[in-house]
């Protein structure tokens, strides 16, 4: 057990801090522009750090601790850590792993620089938790795939330039082996996007309809029928990233500030022992998840495994965050009901918004119930539900 | 950066697990619970031979000189095997009191005997972590008066008693004026009781800052109880999963029903991060002085809540058998219940956590 960083890493931390101090005025929100900031971060090795230079990255050696230090220092300085989104977080790692050389050269650079925005075409109305049941059809006609079907929960589809999409291309194969992973331009004729307004009032998602959409045959990642494997290579990564305990810590700090500032019958809410007990309960749980995160970081650095510790992050993290936001609403009482453009609004309505948004995340990215199946079956080695006999 | 156990620490856990399962495990615990003896000398002897009684005592005093995290790992194993053995007070809190507040003579007299297991020491400070029934101890003219309840490791030869002014005193179990009254609690593995002190001649621990030593004792004691609960709860979860895999109803193992699977997954999801919390809190006791008290409070309170949830849910997974003495799950259930209340229940400990951060009114 040694929680200190070696001098090499302390020096690196100082370097990152120096960079952030010197360049604060170039960051978005401080006078700078998002795309030029991203370019600067890549050149300096603070974004796309381990992605090879020839594909538009910085070309650094993978170093989990340095990545962590960068994330911590950007959070501490409250400056943008560069562009995110599903293209950068999901497609780029996928292409690096299984993409062709041409695909890597064509797509990774523009995606990293923010010139190409992606959306993810996975879920369908009848393929949610049972994603492999997806039915959007792709038929090879000459040198084009012809695609028909519907996707749902497609965030940023209305903004995206391209989509990475799971399509059933082998209708006679078993369901996990009949899917292919295709890339195509969202301006291709035959694509219709309908915004899906969610309970927060925002259109965070879309429905996307495909009618005879023609996609060049070579825009497939991996081979025909390998799409499930390709997609799964990185799904676990998405799950963990939905529940970062360090973000939770800053939200908890905001909650404590709120309880110090708000009054009930003239007394600060923090001085009420009932509310305070609940705060401390939540703080204890946040601490447990932060320690769990430290264990996962250390396991990754030292090439050890802590599978169960990783499997519980999405379930525990999203449930706790939803509870934390809900408690903040209780702290505010009637004031917690205010939402939208209204007098006496607190925190820009963020407590209600995140309370609802995190219910969405409890469901999205593998529901809590699916997470429990994973923990039980893969973590505790309990048997799967027997398959129903075909009628 | 390494947040994990060393090879030596894993070996310590394995050695202790081998010894505790070899002493008869649950059968030994049953015999202890049913018998009249309030000590299990052969278990204590075995722990002494493994170095567990002297784990944190410096080598110059006959101990092993390991850390409080190592002690927490030992406590976890004791909870896992519901071992009928004193530990939190005699192996951790009492040595800490002597190390931090004792003079050279007191250390030389008592630490080697604690390390060897020749002397068992209990700790009487329940009035500092929450006085009930008006209990409390006062010191007047070098003598102690009053009552101390729920002594940790009560079946002892020596007590370390805290008075209301947060002074620490050594009291021999056979000191004139000391009356002991045995209690029976739900947890038969850890006898407790009360001390009535009527002008007992007591030797003060002489350090200038006994309040700091008392704080360190409470912090460490809480982490030990949290670790004990971690081990007990993990064992209950393991039992529940194994039972569910073997128990067939409606023509299939009940482990294949999602209702049962999800109960087990919820236990695992709540418990797994607790392991890291206990490690961190144990590490903080020795290395992170600014965080130690707060993390000890969080570990104690959070493990109490998760332990209670696991104790109840694991019992439920066993169906009716979980409720019986035959399966014996209740020993773990009760041990977790005991750990929850001693040295401050979760509400009291959380109130302290808030005060430590300057959040209390």
How would you explain this protein's 3D organization?
The complex is a heterodimer of chains A (391) and B (361). Chain A is an alpha+beta fold. Chain A has three domains: 7-83, Orthogonal Bundle (Butyryl-Coa Dehydrogenase, subunit A, domain 1); 118-230, Beta Barrel (Butyryl-CoA Dehydrogenase, subunit A, domain 2), CATH 2.40.110.10; 242-379, Butyryl-CoA Dehydrogenase, subunit A, domain 3 (Up-down Bundle), CATH 1.20.140. In chain A, 46% of the residues lie in helices and 14% in strands. The radius of gyration of chain A is 23 Å and the shape is globular. In chain B, helix 8 runs antiparallel to helix 9 (289-317) and helix 9 (289-317) packs antiparallel against helix 11 (346-356). Chain B has three domains: 7-116, Acyl-CoA dehydrogenase/oxidase, N-terminal domain (Butyryl-Coa Dehydrogenase, subunit A, domain 1); 121-207, Butyryl-CoA Dehydrogenase, subunit A, domain 2 (Beta Barrel), CATH 2.40.110.10; 211-356, Up-down Bundle (Butyryl-CoA Dehydrogenase, subunit A, domain 3). The longest helix of chain B has 37 residues, at 210-246. Chain B has 361 residues and is α+β, with helices and mostly antiparallel strands. In chain B, 54% of the residues lie in helices and 13% in strands. Chain B is globular and about 75 Å long. The chains are: A alpha+beta (391), B alpha+beta (361). Chains A and B meet through helix 8, helix 9 and helix 12 of A and helix 7, strand 10, helix 8, helix 9 and helix 11 of B.
Give the arrangement of secondary structure elements:
The complex is a heterodimer of chains A (391) and B (361).
Chain A: H1 7-23, H2 34-44, H3 64-77, H4 86-98, H5 101-112, E1 118-121, E2 137-141, E3 144-152, E4 162-168, E5 179-185, E6 191-196, E7 205-216, E8 220-221, H6 227-241, H7 245-261, E9 263-264, E10 267-268, H8 273-301, H9 307-311, H10 313-332, H11 350-363, H12 368-379
Parallel strand pairs in A: 1-4
Antiparallel strand pairs in A: 2-3, 3-7, 4-5, 5-8, 6-7, 9-10
Chain B: H1 7-22, H2 25-34, H3 41-49, H4 68-80, H5 88-101, H6 104-116, E1 121-124, E2 136-140, E3 143-148, E4 158-162, E5 168-172, E6 178-183, E7 192-201, E8 203-204, H7 210-246, E9 248-249, E10 252-253, H8 258-287, H9 289-317, H10 330-341, H11 346-356
């Amino acid at each position: 057990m040694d929680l200190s960083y070696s001098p090499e890493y302390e020096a690196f931390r100082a370097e990152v801090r120096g960079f952030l101090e010197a360049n604060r005025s170039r960051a978005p929100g401080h006078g700078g522009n998002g795309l030029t900031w991203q370019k600067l971060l890549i050149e300096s090795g603070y974004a796309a750090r381990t992605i090879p230079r020839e594909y538009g990255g910085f070309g650094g050696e993978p170093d989990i601790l340095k990545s962590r230090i960068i994330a911590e220092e950007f959070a501490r300085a409250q400056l943008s850590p560069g562009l995110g989104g599903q293209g950068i977080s999901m497609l780029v790692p996928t292409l690096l792993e299984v993409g062709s050389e041409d695909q890597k050269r064509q797509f990774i650079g523009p995606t990293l620089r923010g010139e190409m925005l992606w959306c993810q075409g996975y879920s369908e109305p009848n393929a949610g938790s049972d994603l492999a049941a997806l039915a959007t059809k792709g038929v090879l006609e000459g040198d084009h795939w012809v695609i028909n079907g519907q996707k749902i929960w497609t965030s940023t589809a209305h903004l995206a330039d391209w989509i990475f999409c799971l399509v059933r291309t082998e209708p006679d194969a078993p369901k996990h082996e009949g899917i292919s992973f295709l890339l195509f331009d969202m301006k291709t004729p035959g694509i219709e996007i309908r915004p899906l307004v969610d309970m927060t009032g925002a259109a965070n998602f879309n429905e996307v309809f495909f009618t005879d959409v023609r996609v060049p045959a070579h825009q497939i990642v991996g081979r025909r029928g390998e799409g499930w494997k390709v997609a799964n290579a990185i799904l676990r990564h998405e799950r963990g990233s939905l529940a970062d305990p360090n973000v939770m810590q800053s939200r908890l700090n905001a909650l404590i500030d709120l309880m110090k500032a708000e009054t009930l019958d003239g007394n600060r809410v923090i001085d009420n022992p009932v509310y305070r007990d609940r705060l401390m309960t939540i703080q204890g749980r946040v601490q447990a998840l932060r320690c769990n995160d430290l264990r996962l970081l250390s396991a990754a650095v030292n090439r050890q495994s802590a599978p169960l510790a990783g499997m519980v992050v999405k379930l525990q993290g999203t449930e706790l965050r939803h509870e934390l936001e809900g408690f903040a609403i209780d702290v505010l009482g009637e004031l917690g009901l205010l939402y939208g453009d209204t007098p006496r609004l607190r925190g820009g309505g963020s407590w209600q918004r995140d309370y609802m948004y995190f219910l969405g995340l409890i469901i999205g990215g593998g529901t809590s119930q699916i997470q429990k199946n994973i923990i039980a079956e893969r973590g505790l080695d309990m048997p799967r539900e027997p398959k129903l006999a075909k009628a | 950066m390494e947040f994990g156990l060393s090879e030596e620490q894993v070996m310590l856990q394995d050695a202790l697990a081998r010894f505790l399962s070899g002493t008869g495990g649950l059968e030994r615990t049953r015999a202890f619970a049913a018998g009249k003896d309030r000590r299990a000398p052969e278990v204590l002897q075995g722990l002494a031979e493994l170095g567990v009684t002297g784990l944190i005592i410096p080598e110059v005093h006959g101990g092993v000189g390991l850390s409080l995290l190592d002690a927490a790992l030992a406590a976890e194993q004791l909870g896992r095997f519901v071992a009928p053995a004193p530990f939190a007070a005699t192996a951790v809190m009492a040595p800490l009191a002597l190390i931090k507040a004792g003079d050279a003579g007191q250390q030389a007299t008592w630490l080697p005997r604690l390390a060897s297991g020749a002397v068992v020491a209990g700790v009487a400070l329940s009035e500092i972590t929450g006085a009930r029934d008006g209990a409390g101890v006062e010191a007047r003219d070098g003598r102690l008066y009053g009552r101390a309840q729920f002594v940790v490791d009560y079946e002892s030869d020596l007590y370390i008693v805290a008075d209301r002014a947060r002074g620490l005193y050594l009291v021999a179990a056979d000191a004139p004026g000391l009356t002991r009254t045995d209690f029976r609690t739900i947890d038969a593995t850890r006898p407790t009781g009360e001390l009535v002190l009527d002008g007992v001649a007591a030797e003060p621990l002489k350090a200038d800052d006994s309040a700091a030593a008392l704080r360190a004792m409470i912090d460490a004691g809480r982490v030990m109880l949290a670790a004990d609960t971690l081990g007990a709860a993990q064992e209950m979860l393991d039992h529940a999963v194994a039972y569910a895999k073997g128990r067939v109803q409606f023509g299939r193992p009940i482990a294949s029903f999602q209702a049962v699977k999800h109960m087990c997954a919820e236990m695992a999801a709540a418990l797994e991060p607790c392991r890291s919390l206990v490690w961190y809190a144990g590490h903080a006791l020795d290395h992170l002085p600014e965080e130690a008290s707060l993390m000890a409070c969080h570990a104690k309170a959070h493990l109490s809540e998760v332990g209670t949830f696991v104790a109840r849910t694991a019992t439920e997974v066993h169906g009716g058998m979980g409720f019986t003495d035959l399966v014996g799950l209740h020993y773990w259930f009760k041990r977790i219940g005991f750990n929850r209340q001693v040295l401050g229940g979760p509400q009291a400990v959380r109130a302290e956590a808030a005060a430590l951060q300057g959040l209390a009114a």
